[in-house]
Amino acid sequence: MLWAMSVRAPTTTTAALDLLKLVWGYDAFRGVQAQIVQTVAGGGNALVLMPTGGGKSLCYQVPSLLRSGVGIVVSPLIALMKDQVDTLRGLGVRAAYLNSTLSLDGVREVEAALLNGELDLLYVAPERLLLPRTLDLLERAPLALFAVDEAHCVSQWGHDFRPEYQGLSVLPERFPQVPRLALTATADDRTRADILRVLDLGTAPQFVSSFDRPNIQYRVGQKDSPKTQLLDFIRAEHAGDAGIVYCLSRKSVEETAKWLQAQGVDAVAYHAGLPPRERTLAQDRFLNEEGLIVVATVAFGMGIDKPNVRFVAHLDLPKSMEGYYQETGRAGRDGLPSTAWMVYGLSDVVNVRRMLASSDAPEEVKRVEAGKLDALLTFCETAACRREVLLAYFGEDYHGPCGNCDTCLNPPQVRDMTREAQMALSAAIRTGNRFGAAHLTDVLLGRATERVVSMNHHTLPTFGVGTAHDEKTWRGVLRQLVSLGFLAAGEHHGLSATGKARTLLKGETTLTLRADTLIPRAAGRRAEKQPRAGRAPVTPEDQPLFEALRAWRLERARSLGVPPYVIFTDATLKGVTELKPTSHASLGTVSGVGQRKLADFGDEVVQIVRDSLDGRPAPVRPATPQERGARENSAVLGALRGRPLLESPAPPALLGDVAPDPARTEQVAAALRETRRAITQETGLSAFLIFPNAALDALAQRQPRTETDLHGIPGFGPKRIETYGAQVLAAVRAALTD
Ligand code: ADP
Ligand code: ZN
């Protein structure tokens, strides 16, 4: 058995690559994916640290299919399980989930499928996994591996701590022979140690990827009229795109959402104070619609797996670099150009500093938090490459310029501002270290306001020393001084010089500040080279085809009751738009088009491309009753028996023009499934490796009688004909003579 040999021999990679192409339609593994797959498929344990969008899922999905038995995926994100399972079923993989959203019957059905070896992947919530009933069940089932997703949840150090995760130590204890793979996108050293301890991964290899997200463009600007700035940004660069806007308070979330709506932008509010129903609705809309903007507090985040979020905007400062990285990281999981956009101003800096100072957390905690905030503010104020500063914070040695952040695209001027800094500090000190920025600016500019006079501040030597600059400049200087820790923010927004200020006042250190605040806006460089992520991933000429494909995808997704990205990702639609394939064969070469997708959607996509080449608009077909039924079913049923879940209403075109008798087709399909099951048991190979469901469906339709009839079936190439051809022909013959 040639095919089977190649799987067991050392060339796991060849088998894995075949599978990757066949099922996912991808040509190559990314970075360390290949090594991880090889390790785990070979029965080893591993720890994987990879950024969001890095491609963690394939690291356990591919080995699960390569090994015999089912891959158990532990995930805390119940809300996402259905989408993940739908996505896998859409690829023809036999996947299911076990969590509290299932009915008792649903649970029984999944359990039976598990024991019968009818599953390739099973997603389980941790609390469900730890039930004695589930553990007993797993002991009786053939297991390929355990993948522990979001593994940082084991650690009390992080903000996503889940006590159940600590119970996962039961895995090495009760299933020592089953490979364990821990995956996370956030892990400092302490968290990493916790993961290794709980899952007993002692000597397992650790695969650490760079945390850079090259497709995200980082931009930080000065706040003047935040809402208008946001609207300009959205209109200019992301009209019609999905995005997240983060605000600090519930009130500003609601105000901003309302304001955007009034401007004709499709936006919805999300925060923890809204009724659960409204929150769920907002989240569902975000996942299922193409271009919705969610205005939210940080409560909106974990569990948002939408791959085509094109921008994340911050109207308020996050609390730390970790927060910033995590929140902006929700943009561009699909690898296409995306923007992380933020505006902030002096009052934001003063506010966050003050909030921190006045919190009643223990001193030690406050110190740690202050350090984190300092790092974020340094990032905001930097004149260097933002990516370099961001990655340096996470211990990565990245050397800019990256060419994809605002400071690289539009380098700010820096100036020696030591003298101005000394003036501002002395204004704070001479007025008693208790006045806010507005008052200090008045003093510096020599404005004898009522308040200045009543405090006698017009008699100070500092009064009027700063008239060479305008008000905006002074606010910029003060902001940078607060950001960099030379001024501290206290009660009533009062600013006081810190210990650190002394060296500066004595002239022992100098201070170089960004000069962007020094240049009046109109004369500035703003208009020159505005960085732009660009909204459409395709050229203007290709835009109509891309939009036609998006419209078709949305319609299809609605009829099947799944989010659009479950049908095809934006990256795949972009690939189709560029290649313009007019046949199944060429469509099959587009990244992200595997055998199953080709069989299910090939005809429709090819037709849309043809229409666009003919200059005809693509008709959007309403859902048939059959499709609407499929939506109802999409929870657990159907696919468990190896049936395709995302059924295409028309049989694939590759079958020629004989219309097969549906009853016979089903008879043959059943016989083929039986044959495949027998081969699975005999060889220990996953059903996929024998032949995928797409091939099974095509065989059932064509009902081949001779070896010649076997040629040209998708997913049933020469190797498979050689290995399984005879068994397939025998099964078809037997089914038809019954
Ligand atoms: P993560 O779980 O690490 O955030 P995902 O597993 O969701 O990332 O992958 C992010 C995106 O990258 C998905 O759209 C996925 O299909 C795509 N992807 C992952 N690996 C590859 C690959 N080897 N080739 C092409 N696309 C890939
Ligand atoms: Zn840069």
TrEMBL record:
Required cofactor(s): Zn(2+); Mg(2+)
Domain of life: Bacteria
Helicase ATP-binding domain segment(s): 37-205
Top-tier EC class: isomerase
CDD domains per UniProt: DEXHc_RecQ, SF2_C_RecQ
Record key words, sorted: ATP-binding, DNA damage, DNA recombination, DNA repair, DNA-binding, Helicase, Hydrolase, Isomerase, Metal-binding, Nucleotide-binding, Zinc
One GO MF term attached to the UniProt entry: helicase activity
The EC number(s) this enzyme carries: 5.6.2.4
HRDC domain location: 539-619, 662-738
Keyword presence, ATP-binding: yes
Reaction catalysed by this enzyme: Couples ATP hydrolysis with the unwinding of duplex DNA by translocating in the 3'-5' direction
Pfam families assigned to the protein according to its UniProt record, in alphabetical order: DEAD, Helicase_C, HRDC, RecQ_Zn_bind, RQC
InterPro entries named among the record's database cross-references: DEAD/DEAH_box_helicase_dom, DNA_helicase_ATP-dep_RecQ, DNA_helicase_ATP-dep_RecQ_bac, Helicase_ATP-bd, Helicase_C-like, HRDC-like_sf, HRDC_dom, HRDC_dom_sf
SMART domains documented for this protein: DEXDc, HELICc, HRDC, RQC
Domain Helicase C-terminal: 226-376
Gene3D superfamilies registered for this protein in UniProt: HRDC domain, P-loop containing nucleotide triphosphate hydrolases, Winged helix-like DNA-binding domain superfamily/Winged helix DNA-binding domain
Protein family per UniProt: Belongs to the helicase family. RecQ subfamily.
The protein's name in its UniProt record: DNA helicase RecQ
